[in-house]
Design a protein that fits this description.
By secondary structure, the protein is mostly helical. It has one domain: Cytochrome Bc1 Complex, Chain D, domain 2, CATH 1.10.760.10. Helices cover about 55% and strands about 5% of the residues. A two-stranded antiparallel sheet has the order 1-2. Strand 1 and strand 2 form a beta hairpin. The longest helix is centred in the N-terminal third of the chain and has 13 residues.
Length: about 120
């Protein structure tokens, strides 16, 4: 009779319980995100757009991007782990709910076709 080693299974369960946000972002409301995107749309909806502050930088279109990625990026800007000054200032003004709503809006199917 083989004995079942519980340590790997227990460790996996503990990691899943401790970090649920790493596997799924809180579902945001795309309609609310659309109403909140005035600070985003001016740069992130223009194909090939480049900003000159603080240096010449290609601004990515974010329509169709995965919501979890957008939330993580905004959290990184807010915490200072990403350093673009404009994005840090914008992200600093956003709540977790705002981030989830914006991410849901930009991840929505209707935005995917706009990103091409």
């Amino acid at each position: 009779m083989k004995s079942f080693n519980l340590i790997p299974a227990s460790l996996a369960c503990a990691l899943l319980a401790a970090a649920p946000s790493a596997f799924s972002a809180d579902a945001g409301d795309p309609a609310a995100g659309k109403a909140k995107n005035s600070m985003c749309i001016g740069c992130h909806s223009i194909g090939g757009y480049k900003t000159v502050f603080p240096e010449v930088y290609h601004v990515p279109k974010i329509g169709g991007q995965h919501a979890a990625y957008i939330v993580k990026a905004l959290q990184e800007y807010k915490s200072g782990n990403r350093s673009h000054p404009s994005m840090r200032a914008i992200a600093a003004s956003l709540s977790d709910k705002d981030m989830a709503d914006l991410a849901a809006y930009y991840a929505a199917d209707e935005m995917k076709s706009a990103a091409k």
